[in-house]
Design goal:
283 residues; alpha+beta; 2 domains; 3 helices; 31% helix; 28% strand
């Protein structure tokens, strides 16, 4: 194919010169030599990186922001789940610690009688309080667990410190709880140090129960721990109820006037559980 004369390259014209190639080679050689001696290119890259950093930062900002947000959300969810798990473990450990009161009471009994009790397995259902009774004369609360969760009328309710009441009405998604401080409430109890059994009645005062059935010769005294006796079957045996705060012997009376302070703070109840008791043996 013939070359158009207009397309032929004239090596002597200004648009093509071997001097340019020679100049580039010389400059490159000088730069490479200087770089090996003084690290010129490293210094140059350092200065260029200063100007390039804002561009790189802005370019990666959306990606880094998204990753940081995702990480924070993931960490928050993880912390919430871990906190919830730790709370449940803490409550469970405290419930197991309450068995110390039961063991202390059982050590004072005849061990051969223990075989006559059926073997019971207790389950703990954690719940939150969603409402309190608006009536000043009622000491009741409502929890967010109901019959759909296996809650039944009569189930005992406790917090990390002791018994607080029992279920009086089981709805589908919630249940109403009668607190031990209510005027209509009575709970069978046992004084751990003496083994004496009685009934503790609510007074309407969140910080005070009354024991009205112990004779004047009772050995009960201030500071004695009181637990559930298990009589009647409503409250499981051995759970802490409170501590005797006052013992008064009234002259001419046949019974002592005894006041009991609940272990649980009934005015500020946060974490509670429903005690579900299952009998594994034949009663």
């Amino acid at each position: 194919m013939a070359i158009n004369p207009g397309q032929r390259i004239n090596r002597y014209e200004k648009n093509y010169s071997s001097y340019r190639l020679i100049f580039v080679i010389i400059v490159s050689s000088i730069l490479m030599y200087q770089d090996t001696q003084d690290g010129y290119s490293k210094t140059l890259r350092t200065y260029l990186s200063v100007f390039a950093y804002p561009i790189t930062y802005v370019a990666n900002l959306p990606k880094n922001t998204f990753q940081g947000l995702s990480l924070r959300l993931s960490e928050r969810a993880s912390i919430i789940n871990e906190n919830k798990k730790l709370k449940e473990e803490n409550i469970l450990l405290k419930s197991q610690l309450q068995e110390v009161y039961k063991l202390d009471a059982e050590n004072k009994r005849l061990y051969e009688l223990l075989g006559s009790y059926p073997d019971r397995q207790r389950n703990f259902l954690f719940a939150d309080i969603i409402a309190t009774s608006p009536s000043p004369d009622k000491r009741q609360i409502t929890i967010n667990k109901g019959s759909i969760d296996g809650v039944n009328i009569g189930d005992a309710i406790a917090d990390p410190y002791g018994i607080i009441g029992h279920v009086i009405r089981d709805q589908v998604f919630s249940s109403e709880i009668l607190l031990i401080a209510d005027l209509e409430h009575a709970i069978p109890i046992e004084i751990t140090s003496t083994g004496e059994r009685a009934i503790a009645y609510g007074t309407g005062d969140m910080n005070r129960l009354e024991i009205r059935s112990l004779p004047p010769n009772s050995k009960a005294k201030k500071g004695n721990a009181v637990i559930t006796s298990g009589l009647g079957g409503r409250y499981p045996e051995g759970f802490p109820v409170g501590e005797i705060s006052r013992v008064e012997r009234i002259e001419g009376e046949n019974l002592l006037a005894i006041e009991l302070s609940p272990f649980a703070n009934l005015e500020v109840i946060n974490e509670i559980w429903v005690i579900q008791t299952e009998v594994s043996g034949d009663e």
